[in-house]
Amino acid sequence: MHRITIFAGHYGSGKTNLAVNHAFQLRKSHPDKRIAVCDLDIANPYFRALDSKKALEISNIEMIASGFSNSNLEAPSIPSSVSAIFDCKDILGIIDVGGDDRGAYALGRYSGRIAEEGAQILLVCNCFRPLSKSPLQIESFKREIEAAANVRFTGMVNNSNLGSETTAEDVLKSMDFIDAASAACGLPVVFTAARRDLLPSLEGKMPGLVGIDIFRTEKWRI
Amino acid sequence: MEKVLMKGNEAIAEAAIMAGCRHFFGYPITPQTEVAAYMSKRLPQVGGVYLQAESEIASINMVLGASSAGVRVLTSSSSPGISLMSEGLSYIAGCDLPAVLVNIQRGGPGLGGIQPSQADYYQATRSSGHGDFRILVLAPNSVQEMADLTMKAFDLADKHRMPAMILGDGILGQMMEPIVLSAPEEQKPAEKPWAATGTGGTRKKNIINSLYLQPDQLERKNLERYERYKAISESEAMYEEHLMDDADVVLVAYGATSRICKNAISMARSKGIKAGLIRPVTLWPFPEKALANASCRAKSFVCVEMSMGQMIDDVKLAVKCSKPVYFCGRTGGMVHSPEEILKKIEDANGGVINEHCI
């Protein structure tokens, strides 16, 4: 197992929700370890990993985020405490990178440390996003993000979803897409994420399923 | 139809392309930057022009130029950027040119903040520039409507030869929802015999201009334009009614706020309070008749806005102050909770007159 897992990809592919889910999974499998989630998003003004800070801290998961995130000050800054993930070898670290190549530039700051450490770097894919519907589009996001961050992906995650309206059928439909994207990128599919309540109708029908929860609460949800 | 998961800002951009818009001029500002980012990626793929201008003032004047040449054109910004566009917008209206602009509102005044707001209602419906003019204002409340109303805005702008604004807020711009992008029914693009497309030596020159040398000419032009506005206000108002059949307390809200109102209304109904919602979809023209009709049977109104109270003036005018109109506002980038709206519904149902109720 890699000590550090990094989620990157097209914006809106679901990186933040996966990062938060991954943290809770790690807490379950490693009840006594230090775990830290790092919000490295310098692109997105709202809907950030920081929104889950309270829930994470209740599970004794540390949150590393810019003091300016979720404020009115738009300062694309990276806190110095991100280095703790690399310096403190007892931490299991999760890094939530901003969307697209623009968001991934921030990760480039740590490319040397990542190369030394050998992190798991996952390309998050959602085939229901209009600009990442085809394997070719996914492959170009892969190249652009790798060039911006000066890192190489080690695998991909199929996170194909239509938000709260996702059905089991939608997830099944994404199988062909992710296989083709995997071939186009030369990357293994590490897992397919599906909302936990969809698992019973999916089990046995596709490989590598991981149940996830949706942590975003929206009072304007109707 | 195929569903896709989109951000509100992206939906506006893709819908504009589907409506035949091939020209975008803008300047980035949170929380609408994805409109420009999406256009910069997509327009070159469809043979369009994406140009990041040096400022909002430049953008709106590029819009004026493109529209003069008869093409569909879009610009997009957020509150402070729209203020910079005021002069150009007035010129566009004065030239009787169609144009679509997007305002994804953020907290103000001044530099304010980047969190969602609805405090540009006055600006959009009253004072988007100097002089006597109106613009069409469309207020979506979902990512689906961001797309649908953008397509409609292009049609309305062409039909009436005037600017149309999509007035959203940071929540709608940033949130993601599954939508179906369906192209408008096959229709003939509006004829633009007035456009400056070159005479080919076969017709008189078309002159696009807002300057009138004689005051009586200008007055005639303004009177004529207001005749058109009158017809538009009678024919183009759009609104949604939600649980209005038996409503005692009528909430009036647009955009993201209307979604929170629906949750508050469910809570009120489970407590036995008959609450309903009128959601203006066009803010100009304002759906006055729907509100006037509701005032016959409703006990009271609650206007819910992410501002210090701007649309409330239109609500009071529409109901001719015949019923109490309460106000429930958050400002500066703060968003209502359903509970605080519920509290106001309870006040309005009990008929308590307090300092917020006039």
* 3D shape of chain A: globular
Question: What Rg of chain B is obtained from the alpha carbons, in whole angstroms?
Answer: 21 Å
Strand content of chain B: 15-25%
Q: Span from first to last CA of chain B?
A: 48 Å
Q: What would CATH call the homologous superfamily of chain A?
A: P-loop containing nucleotide triphosphate hydrolases
Strand order of the largest sheet of chain B: 3-2-4-5-7-6-12
- Compute the number of strand runs of chain B: 14
The separation of the N and C termini of chain A measures 40 Å
User: Total domains of chain B, how many?
Assistant: 2
Mean pLDDT, all residues of chain A: 92
Low-confidence stretches of chain B: 354-358
Major sheet of chain A? 8 strands, parallel
What is the element layout, followed by pairings?
The complex is a heterodimer of chains A (222) and B (358).
Chain A (H helix, E strand, L loop, with lengths): L3 E6 L5 H15 L4 E7 L12 H6 L2 E5 L17 H5 L3 E7 L2 H9 L2 H7 L2 E6 L9 H15 L5 E4 L9 H18 L3 E7 L3 H4 L6 E4 L10
Parallel strand pairs in A: 1-4, 1-5, 2-3, 2-4, 5-6, 6-7, 7-8
Chain B lengths: L2 E5 H11 L4 E4 L6 H10 L6 E4 L3 H13 L4 E5 L1 H6 L1 H9 L4 E7 L15 H5 L10 E3 L4 H18 L2 E7 H5 L1 E5 L34 H21 L3 E4 L6 E4 L2 H16 L4 E6 L1 E3 L3 H10 L2 E6 L5 H8 L6 E5 L8 H13 L8
Parallel strand pairs in B: 2-3, 2-4, 4-5, 5-7, 6-7, 10-11, 10-13, 13-14
Antiparallel strand pairs in B: 1-8, 6-12, 9-11
Helix pairs in contact in B: 1-2, 1-7, 3-5, 10-13, 11-12
